[in-house]
């Protein structure tokens, strides 16, 4: 079966600027999640745990845990356990999380356990990048399991070496917050853009008064805030809701070389060019039409340009795309004559290198 391109068009044509909330364009410096991780043991498995002969760290962990519980194993004892698995526990600590709150955790097998279904995670400290313990995790795992349907003729097996525990960790330490230090905050645009930084600064000063916001560069904007915490929270709530009239986004084409997907955020036009790739040939030409009004008609001379695209593939199949063609029509035409994703990738790269494609080309 012939592979077909998946063409996704998300056109944002150049036109009047769109208004977006400041919350969607920027984040507040310091208001972020922090990653936590820890090493622990899952017990109570139904014979699907680590093979201790091949995972010595699991045996060492069990011995250490038993010693902490006051149980000393005789020297030379060889543990042969099948219901224990060594795991890594990961979580994200939300901004402003306080001791006593609970967060979700993900438990992933480190050894060769076949399944974590039905297991219980023993108390595991979760540490941050600074080595401090910020949460303690424990609880019963929920793992998507295997199922059969149609009298057992159809079997579906999910990934059994990873499980989740909703609310499985309790926060023990809060991350220090410097929000509002020196009565100011920093807004960080999600994408560096000098024009948007200027528009954000202007919109904030128009709403809250001159001098409240100052752009430091194309990404960071310094904003003065009230001194009291309650007024600061109210101020930030209003700040996030400020409407910003952003300019048109840059033309961009994203090509997935593995799936053949092409995504564009604008109608990208092409300059006249000619490309030969294997048994494919692409010719893009521009035809100028001049319309001259008759004498004394009061009209004016009109000049229009039409882009013509011709594609050929042996044994001679030809497609002509009408005037005003865009890259979207080129991709459709290539698909119609049976080009492969590799053909399209090579042609797009050649168009970009020749300067005929007026867009940023990103290959993923």
From TrEMBL:
Determine if Transcription regulation is one of this entry's keywords.
no
The positions making up the signal sequence are 1-19
Which keywords, in A-to-Z order, does the entry hold? Bacterial flagellum, Cell projection, Cilium, Flagellum, Signal
Q: Which domain of life is it from?
A: Bacteria
Q: Which InterPro entries match?
A: Flag_FlgI
Q: Which Pfam families match?
A: FlgI
Cellular compartment(s): Bacterial flagellum basal body
Q: Describe its assembly.
A: The basal body constitutes a major portion of the flagellar organelle and consists of four rings (L,P,S, and M) mounted on a central rod.
**UniProt-listed HAMAP family:** FlgI (MF_00416)
Query: What biological function has been recorded for the protein in this entry?
Result: Assembles around the rod to form the L-ring and probably protects the motor/basal body from shearing forces during rotation.
Q: What is this protein called?
A: Flagellar P-ring protein
- Provide the species name: Massilia terrae
């Amino acid at each position: 079966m012939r592979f077909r391109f998946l063409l996704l068009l998300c056109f944002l044509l150049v036109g009047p600027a769109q208004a977006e909330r400041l919350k969607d364009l920027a984040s507040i410096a310091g208001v972020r999640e922090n990653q936590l991780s820890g090493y622990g043991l899952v017990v109570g498995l139904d014979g699907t745990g680590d093979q201790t002969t091949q995972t010595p760290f699991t045996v060492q962990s069990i011995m250490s845990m038993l010693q902490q519980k006051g149980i000393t194993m005789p020297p030379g004892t060889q543990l042969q356990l099948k219901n224990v698995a060594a795991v890594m526990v990961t979580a994200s600590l939300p901004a402003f999380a306080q001791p006593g709150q609970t967060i979700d955790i993900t438990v992933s097998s480190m050894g060769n356990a076949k399944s974590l279904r039905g297991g219980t995670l023993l108390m595991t400290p979760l540490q941050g990048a600074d080595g401090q313990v910020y949460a303690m995790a424990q609880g019963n795992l929920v793992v998507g399991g295997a199922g059969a349907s149609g009298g057992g003729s159809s079997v579906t097996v999910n990934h059994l070496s990873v499980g989740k525990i909703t609310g499985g960790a309790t926060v023990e330490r809060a991350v220090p917050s410097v929000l509002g230090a020196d009565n100011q905050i920093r807004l960080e645009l999600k994408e560096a853009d000098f024009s948007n930084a200027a528009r954000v600064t202007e919109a904030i000063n128009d709403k809250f008064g001159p001098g409240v916001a100052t752009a430091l560069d194309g990404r960071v904007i310094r904003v003065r805030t009230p001194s009291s915490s309650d007024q600061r929270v109210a101020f930030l709530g209003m700040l996030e809701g400020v409407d910003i009239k952003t300019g048109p986004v840059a033309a961009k084409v994203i090509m997935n070389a593995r799936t053949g997907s092409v995504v564009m955020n604008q109608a990208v036009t092409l300059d006249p060019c000619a490309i030969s790739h294997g048994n494919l040939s692409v010719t893009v030409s521009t035809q100028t039409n001049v319309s001259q009004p008759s004498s004394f008609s009061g009209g004016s001379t009109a000049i229009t340009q039409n882009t013509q695209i011709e594609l050929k593939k042996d044994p001679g199949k030809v497609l002509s795309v009408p005037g005003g063609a865009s890259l979207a029509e080129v991709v459709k035409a290539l698909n119609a004559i049976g080009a492969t994703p590799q053909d399209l990738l090579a042609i797009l790269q050649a168009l970009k290198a020749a300067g005929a494609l007026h867009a940023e080309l990103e290959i993923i």
